[in-house]
C-alpha cells in the first residue's frame, strides 16, 4: 500500500493559500487526505479555505520562519491523525527585481535562507518522529535555479541548492523515509511573476499541471533523490 492510499492520512503542506501548495492540497483533499497548511497572509488563507470548503482542511496562519508557528502547525496536523507527508513548499524569492550577488543586501539574503533552508529543516526536525513512525514522505520544493547559475538568481538559487543538498543528506540519514527534492519547473505563480517583473508569464504552466508529478512520487515512491516534474510526467505518459 502506497503512502497516497492510506485512509485518514495527514499531510502538512506549507504555503498552501495559492500556487503549487494550494494545487497539491486540493488534490490530496480529493483523495481523502487531511491537509494542514499555512500562509503568512491570513486573508488569503481564509479565502482559500472558504473556496475549498473541506472539513479535512486545517489552516494555521503564520510565518513558517517562526518557531511558535511551526510548532502550532505540526501540533494541528498530529492532532488530526497519522502524519504521513510533509511538503516544504513555502519559499521566499527575495528582492524584486533580483539583485546581483555583488549588490545583494545581507538582510534580504538572510530572510531568503530563513524561509528556504532553515525553516524547512526545522519543520522536518519537528515532524520527524511522526514521519518515522509512519514511514512517511518528505518533499522539498526545489528549482532549476538550484542547479543552473542564472544571472541575478544568486540568493534564491543558492538557497535552493542548499535545500537540495540538505534533502540528499536527510535521505542518507533516514533510509526508511521517502525524501525527495522536487523541481516543478516554471509555473504561472505570483512568485514567478515577481521574478520577472513587468513580463508576460502567461505561457508558463499552471501549478495544477504539475500536481500529477507530485502524486507520482507518492504513488510510486521511487528511490530518494532529486526529481523534475517534466521527467516524472514523461514517465507517467509512457506508462
Keywords:
7 strands, about 240 residues, Rossmann fold, seven-stranded parallel sheet, alpha/beta
Considering DSSP H and I runs of 4 or more, what fraction of the residues is helical?
A: 40-55%
The secondary-structure element order is EHEHEHEHEHEHHEH
Q: Briefly note the CATH topology name.
A: Rossmann fold
How many domains? Answer: 1
CATH architecture term: 3-Layer(aba) Sandwich
Main sheet properties:
7 strands, parallel
Strand order of the largest sheet: 3-2-1-4-5-6-7
Backbone shape: globular
Q: How many strand units?
A: 7
CATH superfamily: NAD(P)-binding Rossmann-like Domain
Class computed from helices, strands and strand pairing: alpha/beta
Residues in β-strands, percent: 15-25%
List the helices and strands and how they pair.
Blueprint: E1 10-13, H1 19-30, E2 34-39, H2 42-52, E3 57-61, H3 67-80, E4 83-88, H4 106-134, E5 137-141, H5 154-173, E6 178-183, H6 190-195, H7 211-220, E7 225-228, H8 229-238
Parallel strand pairs: 1-2, 1-4, 2-3, 4-5, 5-6, 6-7
Describe the overall structure.
The chain has helices at 19-30, 42-52, 67-80, 106-134, 154-173, 190-195, 211-220, 229-238, and strands spanning 10-13, 34-39, 57-61, 83-88, 137-141, 178-183, 225-228. With 239 residues, it is of the alpha/beta class. The protein has one domain (3-238): NAD(P)-binding Rossmann-like Domain (Rossmann fold, 3-Layer(aba) Sandwich). It has a seven-stranded parallel beta sheet, sandwiched between helices. Helix 3 (67-80) runs parallel beside helix 4 (106-134), helix 4 (106-134) packs parallel to helix 5 (154-173) and helix 7 (211-220) crosses helix 8 (229-238). The longest helix has 29 residues, at 106-134. The radius of gyration is 17 Å and the shape is globular. It starts with 9 loop residues before the first strand and ends with a helix.
